[in-house]
Amino acid sequence: MNVINIKNISKIYQMGTVQVSALVDVSIKIDRNEYVAIMGPSGSGKSTLMNIIGCLDTPTSGLYEFNGVNVGEMADNDLATIRNKEIGFVFQTFNLLSRSDALHNVELPLIYAGIKRSERRELAEEALHHVKLGDRMHHKPNELSGGQRQRVAIARALVTKPSIILADEPTGNLDSKTGIEIMALFNELHQQGNTIILVTHEEDIAAYAHRIIRIRDGMVESDHFVENRHVPKILA
Amino acid sequence: MKLLDFGFELKEGLAISFQAIRANKMRSVLTTLGIIIGIVSVTLMGTAIEGLNRSFNENIQKLGADVLYVQKFPWFDGGDNWWKYRNRKDITVRQYRSIKDQATMLAAASPSSGRMATVKYLNHSIEGVMAVGSNQDYLAISGATMENGRFFSQAESDGGRPVVVLGYKVAGDLFPNETPIGKNVKVSNYTYRVVGVMAEQGNFLGWSLDNRVVIPMTNFMQRFFNRRHGIEIQVKVSDLKQIEDAKEELRGILRKVRNVKPGDEDDFAINQQELFIQTFNTIGGVIAGIGLFITALSLFVGAIGIMNIMFVSVTERTKEIGIRKAIGAKRLTILLQFLIEAAALALMGGVLGLMISYPLSLLLDQVLPTSMPISVVLIAIFISILVGVISGFLPANRASKMDPVDALRYE
Ligand SMILES: Nc1ncnc2c1ncn2[C@@H]1O[C@H](COP(=O)(O)OP(=O)(O)O)[C@@H](O)[C@H]1O
Ligand SMILES: [Mg+2]
For chain B, which residues make up each domain, given as ranges? Predict the structure, then answer.
């Protein structure tokens, strides 16, 4: 069964009297343990699609099934639960709570999942070790580099062991060396069995994925598997 | 399960709100100024009313509910009629005798007058002692009891014997090391033999009841009487339930003996404790009215302040709300987070208010015997939380209904 099954989805924004069609009749299926890159120029609708996949936003029309369940029929609370348990979001601008340290940021989804303090402490520490930030747990975001912040965000996305990890231009605010490090991390997560959907407008970055979906003007332009995948090399 | 969720959300909400308040200490304190003032005024009002009630109860017991006071002046009448009362015929011992002879509903009656005097024993001397003239019914009417010795007898009273009963404090000051009974003391240079000492009575409206001496009225009239002070007649009725009838009977006797023409108004006043009750209630009502007005006004201002700051806080933290929603916070969670923050803010104001009003209540205790009742403290805490929750609701609701995508996009 597909993790994600999108059928004929459209998203229309009403801007006063003007209608902006951000997505037009988009259909996509994504399986477990796929590594998909969504590509397209700025304004083509990538983020809109990601937000719909991540249950942050709802389409104007069309069907969206997540793990076989129709998202369109879900109540607000159920969507929150899906976002919490099934989806790990990584944003271009990191979106960490600036007043909280790394550990607390990573704990946050576990708090909303209602997990006991001692257990979530353990899970959060584990996730931070996983992204090699075991020695930065009590640093606040402004005491961390961009790459480190994004790794905190990835740890936060991972910590609930979600069905999919969604990353919207995760390297967009990073220099290329740090970007490669982050891509190496995604590669590793994929090898460990995670399903990853990544938005980017850089061919270099997209080339790490197994499958590339190209979007233009809100429509799927192409959808194919990658022949020569990049395998990120990090110089340790 | 649902309850468990709520407990958890409450706990997390508290943690978040304390973090938020700590991050904006100055703003938080300023915001709660209205609450602080409101809580100070409500607690001080409660404390003052408690003090009034307490002194009321203490004083009223000393006064005796069943005692009537025949005087020229009515209690608690405005100053306008002062001259009219002043020029009334004096209350006299003869009128007391008429009452004593004719009234049927009395348990005890006594003429009474008082004057400041200096009391001496050997080289001990106390100034400003109230020398009271009364008769053998003094104890029954005043409710005082004996500590030592006895009260003077009817024979001693009628005969105007130079005997004296000392108040507790006078006895203690004059006779620190020996028994006063049988000793001769001087009251304003007249010699009196001490026959007894009354037990401690405490204060009445701030007056020490123990700083007095009681001598037979006949003797008092000869040596101390001052027309300017006049005398009064104190009457204890035999049955409190029939106090109104007793009062009527007393009135009839007094009108006759004082030659008041039929149709003319009384040229005397029969006062009773009831008047104290009314006055105390009036004072209490005024304090409560002013206190409630200030409280309501400042709590309203405080509530507006908190609502305002919570709207600011919600707007400032739009992005944070978006992040929290994106990683799974439910609407209720966000709602509670901000409600709790508002309540914690208001509660902080309430606690600061209590910290200010507690020392003030100690000052108040210098004037009125009082202490801040625990119920007032609990009410203050309850009110501040309530104000916080009410004023936090609209901002919290706005936060909880934010669209996550819009919130995340907010810069
Ligand atoms: N909240 C919104 N209101 C109106 N228009 C929007 C909104 N969000 C996105 N759009 C429009 O939808 C289109 C797709 O935007 P987006 O999905 O953010 O593109 P991308 O992420 O590919 O750059 C753009 O034309 C954008 O202006
Ligand atoms: Mg985008």
Answer: 2-58+278-409, 107-235
